[in-house]
Amino acid sequence: MKMKNLIKITAILFMISGSVFGQIYKTKNGKISFFSDGQSEKIEAINNQASAALDATKGDLVFKVLMKSFEFEKALMQEHFNENYVESAKFPDATFKGKVINISEINFAKNGKYKAFVEGDMKIHGVTKKVKQNGSIEVKDGKIIIIAKFPIILKDYNIKIPKAVINNIAENVDITVNTTLEK
Amino acid sequence: MQKITVSIILFVCLFTQNVKSQDLMDMLGDEKPAKDYITATFKTTHLILGQSIENVAKGNLNFIISHHFGRINEGSYNFWGLDQSTIRLGVEYGITDKLEIGLGRSSFQKTFDGYVKYKIFRQDNLKMPVSVSYFGSMAINTLKWDDPTRENYFSSRLSFVNQILIARKFNNALSLQLTPSFVHKNLVKRNIDQNNIFAIGAGGRYKLTQRLSVNAEYYYLLPGQTADDFDNSLSLGFDIETGGHVFQLFFTNSQPLFERGFITETQGKWNKGDVFFGFNIIRTFTIVKPKEFRKS
């Protein structure tokens, strides 16, 4: 009798944990872009192939972006970006591994826009830095849209700007994330 | 019994906590594309005098100014060659990422030249060890006829160069290229002169910094009348890359700046100081923007 109960309880627990375990949203077509507002030149690049995943229960959030997938208006800029600045042959991806600290405030069952506080490790050009940012998570018909905009300092990630182009590339670059994830 | 129940419940709870950040990252999978083409084997479409396997990107235009001064051994009166010059102005356009066309005019024999460069194979990180391109050009000599009373044909003004460019980027710093070439001249001066000439080019670049490289280029004429009368072209120089320009500064024993000229008509010996200082300035313009950036 007791054994039967035990099995029932274990089965129920596994079922509950199973449904909790299934709260992972992901995508392989996230949009990440960056903008450099230099004195004499504006540079913009767009990447539509970012991978991202969010664990809705625990708040774990990860991004992985292939540097070669950033597209520029000028082909030469794209070549220099990969060859000279981010050295994508050595460091093919940029990653973010972190957590949405206030995940419990977000109701994934109800449509709406929620403020999100994110903390984690940002790794670009082989250098990892702790970052803390605010953004928003919008729940819309079972999908979630992560929107964030924040600056990064190129020097922090060892990305060097030669004196010759110091007016063309800003020291801080604005990164915009606009990524839709689904289960 | 209680103990076992508790431990089972605990075990189940622990099990559900197992989706850590790293596991989430692993779930994203390996994002590297299966095949990754090697880019930026050379800084620009020219090695020094001759072509490199690089093409102009689709929708982009290169404007090229090439300039050779006179011989350095001409002494102070001619300011070591700086008083004289031959120049070539040219443009190159990328029709697709693989197909490029070019046009130019040189002051040397007032020659117009037009060409096509096509990427046949591209080096990648899996199977293809080299990049291979085809280069075909036609040059038209527009000097006035030496003897206008003789029957002169327009076709006599034409010469053709066909090359297969084979290059490999060994690492971030070193790239090498082999350029077997075939030159055909419709009309040559004497009976014993060759209409068909074979040569092999070899050269490469070594990057000293991200934006500065040292380049070398040599064209060896296969034995024949041309090899007897003329010298093999040898050029040494630097590539300096800034945002939209590449500056190529070099010393060469070739006065002509287009293919047929420097491959088969070079007259100058390095050890005698028959060296010309020259430069190429290549500026890239974006004519057709990629889809993502076009204003709808």
Q: What features would you describe in this structure?
A:
- The complex is a heterodimer of chains A (183) and B (296).
- Chain A has 183 residues and is an alpha+beta fold.
- Chain A has one domain: Lipocalin (Beta Barrel), CATH 2.40.128.
- In chain A, 17% of the residues lie in helices and 51% in strands.
- Chain A is built from 2 helices and 9 strands; from the N terminus they run H-E-E-E-E-H-E-E-E-E-E.
- Chain A has helices at residues 2-21, 75-85, and strands spanning 24-37, 42-55, 60-66, 71-72, 93-100, 112-124, 127-140, 143-153, 172-181.
- In chain A, a hairpin with a 2-residue loop joins strand 6 and strand 7.
- The mean pLDDT of chain A is 87.
- By secondary structure, chain B is mainly beta.
- Chain B has one domain: monomeric porin ompg (Porin, Beta Barrel).
- Helix content of chain B is 11%, strand content 43%.
- Chain B has 4 helices and 12 strands.
- Chain B has a 12-stranded antiparallel β-barrel.
- In chain B, strand 10 and strand 11 form a beta hairpin.
- Chain B is elongated, with a radius of gyration of 27 Å.
- The N and C termini of chain B lie far apart (71 Å).
- In chain B, 34% of the residues are buried.
- Classes of the chains: A alpha+beta (183), B mainly beta (296).
- At the A-B interface, helix 1, strand 1, strand 2, strand 3 and strand 4 of A face helix 1 and helix 2 of B.
Give a quick rundown of the structure.
The complex is a heterodimer of chains A (183) and B (296). With 183 residues, chain A is of the alpha+beta class.
Task: Write the SSE topology.
The complex is a heterodimer of chains A (183) and B (296).
Chain A: H1 2-21, E1 24-37, E2 42-55, E3 60-66, E4 71-72, H2 75-85, E5 93-100, E6 112-124, E7 127-140, E8 143-153, E9 172-181
Antiparallel strand pairs in A: 1-2, 1-9, 2-3, 2-4, 3-5, 5-6, 6-7, 7-8, 8-9
Chain B: H1 2-16, H2 21-28, E1 60-71, E2 85-94, E3 99-106, E4 111-121, E5 131-141, E6 158-169, E7 174-185, E8 196-207, E9 212-221, H3 225-229, E10 233-241, E11 245-252, H4 259-264, E12 276-286
